[in-house]
Amino acid sequence: MMKIKFQFIFLISFIISSIDRSVSLPSIDNLGISPQDENYYKGLSLGAIKCKDVSKKFTKSQLNDDFCDCPDGSDEPGTSACSSGKFYCKNTGHIPLFIYSSRVNDGICDCCDGSDEYDGKVKCPNTCWEVGKVARDKLKKKIATYQEGITLRRKEVEEAKLAITKEEAELSKLKTEEKILKDTVEQLKDKKEQIEKAEEKERLKREKEEKDRKEADDANLEASKAEEKTEGQEEAVKSDIHDKIGLLEDSPSIKDAVEGHDKNVDEVQHGDHSVNDEFPVDELEQVPEDSSQEKDATENTESLSKEELGRVVGSRWLGKKSEQELEGVGAGSDTNHDNHNEVLPDTHEEEYNGYDSEEDEQKYDDGDSEDQVEDFVGEDHDSSSSHKSESDDDSDFADITTTSSPSWMEKIQQTVKSIFRAVNLFQTPVNISDADRIRKEYDESSSKLTNIQSRISSLTEKLKQDFGPEKEFYSFHGQCFESKENKYTYKICPFKEASQVEGYSTTRLGNWDRFEDSYKTMQFSNGDHCWNGPNRSLKVKLRCGLKNELTDIDEPSRCEYLAFLSTPALCREEKLKELQDKLETMNREQPHGHDEL
User: Fold this and answer.
1) In whole angstroms, how far apart are CA 201 and each of 18, 197, 206, 379?
2) Which stretches of sequence are listed as region Disordered (predicted)?
3) Contact by Cβ (8 Å): 102, 80
4) Is residue 368 part of a domain?
5) Whether the Cβ atoms of residue 465 and residue 493 lie closer than 8 Å to each other
6) Last residue of a domain, which of 94, 109, 125?
7) How far apart are CA 564 and CA 567, in angstroms?
8) Strands 537-544 and 560-567
């Protein structure tokens, strides 16, 4: 009875509502059923079917009987009997959607076609065509954006593939050039080190020569000082001797004393008795010998010049015995006596010969210095005559060929080759201009090698990145997208990092991690640590747009950020077809369902 009564009420409501609507409501058996579930419910024509959660079974008579038989509400898709059930709004002319079964016949119009309020308590006009017009217009604009975006995407994909091919070729070429330039730099480095060794040898040689010269100058200075000191002493002695000679000239001379003594000796020999009285006989016996010695002294004294006599007196003042000096004088006068057959060396001649020997020694020293200089000159001559021939240098670049339009690498090789031909590394001293050319070319080649290696590194790292299945995200590399939200400026750099800037303070939201959700999401992880929380992270949802634009940045969870980025890279043809089908569905009387819950 209850079911018959419900069906009667529904029929009356359907008749009444059909008067005010341009479309009719579905039958009770199809009420609230989506197109995707139509095949499932067709099984009721054959008998009982299982609930969707397979917990129970129900028959066709139990479908939409306003009694909940299945816990999941699958037996009551068009009533509010099951709280867990869902009601499908077809909304012909607009967007189909699901609503919770609890909203069915609750007095509020939830479906634009009014199908959710079929008990007649509330009149719900069908507004799907009016409301649907706005949605359809919006959908049409979205379809147009996709169509234009797809064109831009195709162009970017084509450019990306060409750029990647070009960069791969460049990388291969750079690796070849790196190998060649490495060899060139090694050769220049070897030549540079040879120059530095030669320059170091020259420096040490100059230092040694300077040291030897300084030592010689110091020795000459010391000898000069010693000679000046000796000459000063001689001048003092001479001055003193002249003073003494002057005194001797004023007093009875030595010659007179000697002559007086000789006279006494003659008187004794001739029998002068007055002398005998003064000299006893035993003393006179000794006179002849003494007289002979005094005679020799007298003769020696007479043979001396005034200057020589002064030297004799000076020698006595220096503390030498008169007998030794007289003997030296006698030897110097070449007078041979019977009692003095041995010739004694002249002390005066030895003294001055000593000065002469010092001068001679100094001369020999100077001669040695000159010989050393000559030895150095000889070494230079030998080394310069044994330098490497040009053919040896040419062998280093024998495999290099020149063309009518040589590349920069060939130009470097030719320049280095010409330098090696012109520069004589065995020349002593090293030519400064040649050394500078080697150093300059080495520095420039090393700089070029460093630049090449840096480029190789950056290209290798870049080409390792995942740019999408069609390389559609290649243009993201090296770009950063910014957006200002309130007091913060957000900066997102794909394949690198994301940050939040406030004034002069920068907070890292994360480092580049990977693409997710079939390249619809970019993930940045392991950002700066949140106080008393996790490390910051960011997800960037991608959507189709005609330009790269960052929008709608939010923090839905603590230290977990969410942003949206519009880009042509996400304008895909399969999505365009889906939108076109949707628009077509909105214009059909029996549209396919779509879950909006």
Assistant:
1) 114, 6, 9, 12
2) 200-402
3) yes
4) no
5) no
6) 125
7) 10
8) parallel
The dihedral built from the CA positions of residue 151, 154, 156 and 158, taken in this order, carries a sign that is: negative
Instruction: Report yes or no: 508 and 528 within 8 Å, Cβ to Cβ.
Output: yes
Q: How many CB atoms lie under 10 A from the CB of residue 454?
A: 10
CATH code where residue 532 lies: 2.70.130.10
Asked whether residue 16 carries a pLDDT value surpassing 80, the answer given is no
Amino acid present at 103: R
Give me 227's structure tokens.
Answer: 């000679």
From 108, 125, 142, the end of a domain falls on: 125
Contacts of 270 (CB under 8 A, 6+ apart): none
pLDDT tens figures, 193-219: 888 888 888 889 889 989 999 999 888
pLDDT greater at residue 267 or residue 470: 470
Q: Of 180-194, 244-258, 447-461, which one has max mean pLDDT?
A: 447-461
Flag whether 526 is in a domain: yes
User: Distance (Å, rounded) from C-alpha 416 to C-alpha 443?
Assistant: 12
Residue span of the structural domain in which 518 resides: 474-584
> Residues 290-342: pLDDT tens digits?
444 444 544 555 555 555 666 665 555 454 444 444 444 444 444 444 444 44
Give domain status of residue 435, yes or no. no
Distance CA 482, CA 493 (A): 9
Q: What is the pTM of this model?
A: 0.52
Q: How many domains does the chain have?
A: 2
In a domain? residue 487: yes
- By residue count, the chain amounts to 597
Query: Residue 86 forms beta bridges with which residues?
Result: 100
Cis peptide leading into 125, omega within 30 of 0?
A: no
